[in-house]
Amino acid sequence: MNIALYAGVVLVTLSGAAVILRIAIGPSDSDRAIAADLLLGVCIALFILFGMLADYSAIMDVLLVVSSAGFLSSLALARLILRDEQ
């Protein structure tokens, strides 16, 4: 089980590096906004994997609040981008 968790950490970290690259070279603001939202998802996935490795179940409650805040910030950022395009 630990081998699968470590493999998950490596794969999620590689996807996080790809997302950071998209943020750096994204051609438009909407690409960067989507990548920033995906980066939040990558961070949440990493925290879940590390919580499973450390056998720390209380991290799930914290991540629920963080993901809710991330969802609301994504909505606000999408509205801001749409207002600037009009």
How is this structure best summarized?
With about 90 residues, the chain is an all-alpha fold. The protein contains 3 helices and no strands. The termini are far apart.
Protein topology:
Elements: H1 2-25, H2 29-53, H3 59-85
Describe the structure.
By secondary structure, this protein is mainly alpha-helical. It is 88% helix and 0% strand. It is built from three helices and no strands. The longest helix has 27 residues, at 59-85. The radius of gyration is 15 Å and the shape is flat. It starts with a helix and ends with a helix. The mean pLDDT is 88.
SSE run: HHH
The parts where pLDDT drops under 50 for at least 5 residues are none
SS field, number of helical segments: 3
Helix content estimate: over 70%
Shape: flat
How widely separated are the two ends?
51 Å
Measured on Cα atoms, how large is the radius of gyration? 15 Å
The residue-averaged pLDDT reads: 88
* Approximate strand percentage: under 5%
Strand tally is 0
Structural class: mainly alpha
Summarize the biggest pleated sheet.
none
List keywords for this structure.
86 residues
